[in-house]
Amino acid sequence: MPTWLRRLRPLRLALREAAGARRLHRDENAPARQDRTFVDLVPHLARASHWAAAGLEAGIDYATFRRRLPLTTPTALAPQVDRMRRGETGVLWPGPCTRFVRSAGTATGEARVLPVTDALGEHFRHAHETVLLHARLWSGRHGLLAAPHLFLGAAPTTADAIPPGPAADPFTLFSATAAAAEAGHRFLPGPTPATATTWGDRLDAAAAVAATWPHPAGLLVGLPDQLAAFGQRVLAHAARAGRPARHLRELWPDLIGCLHTGQPLAPCAAELRAVLGPGSLLQEVHAAVEGLYACQDSPRPEDGLRLLTGSGLFFEFLPWADYDPALPASLGTRALPLEEVRPGVDYALVVTTPGGLVRTLVGDLVRFTSVEPPRLLPTGRIEHQLTRFGEEVSERDLTTCLAGVCTRHGWTLVQFHVATRVDEAAAAGLARGHHEWWVELRAGTVATPTGPHLAQELDAALQGLNPGYAARRRTGKISAPVVRLVMPGVFATWLRAEGREGGLHRVPRSANDLRCAAPLARLTHFAD
């Protein structure tokens, strides 16, 4: 790019940002945008051999599409993805595909590999820009499109082979565009010394470099707890280098704030705000390797996240009450288009994408807070919904309760996991059991609670929040919870032992079995 044109870039982006914000402010009809997306996607998908064989035809209407194409999962598409990785063209999307991405595998413990077509890359670029435009509208901040991003996660995979290591951050998938490279985005940890063998060491090495950058980032992107930890390390290295600062905005005057994804902000909100500095932008984004789904468009996070209906993904919503893990063919007709959803109902998210996915259950549960405009709250993963005793407790319910109790007492939460355990003395015919909470608090927390004390408060909070749990506590279907308070570092040790440290890897918040609790019990010497 000529130097004179590069110098005009800030002005070009400022004009583009202003025009884009005006378009969003007009708020076109969301169902109409989804109709256009469906019409745009179908002709391309119909040219892919797998979907053509499944009955997808160019010009198919939605009613026929809904009746003819069954729901599927990324795991079920693994054989087709393997064919694409071996060089076969036109399998799930027309033409060749040379880039792939590995998910974090938090839900099942098994990472999935998905194709990154050029069209999907364009979706990420466009959706990411829409996220920033929404941030401008609700926050009044300018310069978001021109702000260099620091992505805390692995860089995107640009070859057909998937290297071992941390999963790719969904935000980075749009980065193959020349515009993103020109913006000066950085991916961390990036290259680190050979001695940095653990994620903590790599993060510390990256923080040491970042503390002395001459042109630091304008926006940080990643998991909120990892952003807080990274910021604290940057400040520590800056102080040792003779540049003490109370927060990152003091160290980096051009820092606007962060985009956070992957987990609820509440447990680490205070830490992250303190690290970033007063007045920092914090915007939540619902994202995965399949696509960018929704983003915060209001200063009140409780309003929910605006569904990104015009960025190239077609959304459907399967009522959680109808979900069947066997995915019978009849289930496809129960998935609803956007115009048929209702607030307050839990839905399994179904997407059709320019990455070659058709009617794919991505594993996320969502609950709409409004339909005009469409806003939703991610409530957790399907696999992590606590249902063993019929309680229907979501990850968001658990996080809300624990974060609320910790905030009330001034305790700083690090990590937690909730397992279900059947009581050995359960009465015949009654699956009586309890929730087992594993909780790690920040070292130095004042007036640290005992396990029974915390269990009593969590039990009361969850009964007040979740009617299903409250009903089963009253009938004895679920007995009182047990809380295991663990020493600092236990969850990090568990992640390291499982080979899931760093990147987008995170501790599953809940499980209907003891797959996480059993190794935690061995690490902490609690009786299993």
Describe the structure.
By secondary structure, the chain is an alpha/beta fold. It contains 17 helices and 17 strands. It has two domains: 381 residues, 3-Layer(aba) Sandwich (Rossmann fold), CATH 3.40.50.12780; 140 residues, GMP Synthetase, Chain A, domain 3, CATH 3.30.300.
Chart the SSEs and their pairings:
Blueprint: H1 3-7, H2 9-26, H3 30-46, H4 49-53, H5 62-68, H6 78-85, E1 100-102, E2 113-115, H7 118-139, E3 149-152, H8 178-182, E4 186-188, H9 199-210, E5 219-222, H10 224-240, H11 248-251, E6 257-260, H12 269-276, E7 281-288, E8 291-296, E9 305-307, E10 314-319, E11 346-352, E12 360-371, E13 374-381, H13 395-409, E14 413-422, E15 433-441, H14 451-465, H15 467-475, E16 482-486, H16 490-497, E17 510-511, H17 517-524
Parallel strand pairs: 3-4, 3-5, 5-6, 6-7, 14-17, 15-16
Antiparallel strand pairs: 1-2, 7-8, 8-9, 9-13, 10-11, 11-12, 12-13, 14-15
Helix pairs in contact: 2-7, 9-10, 10-12, 13-14, 14-15, 16-17
Unreliable runs: 155-179
Oligomer: single chain
Calculate the terminal CA-CA distance, rounded to whole Å. Answer: 63 Å
Determine the fraction of residues in helical runs and give it as a percent range.
25-40%
Question: What's this, in brief?
Answer:
By secondary structure, the chain is α/β, with parallel strands linked by helices. It has helices at residues 3-7, 9-26, 30-46, 49-53, 62-68, 78-85, 118-139, 178-182, 199-210, 224-240, 248-251, 269-276, 395-409, 451-465, 467-475, 490-497, 517-524; strands at 100-102, 113-115, 149-152, 186-188, 219-222, 257-260, 281-288, 291-296, 305-307, 314-319, 346-352, 360-371, 374-381, 413-422, 433-441, 482-486, 510-511.
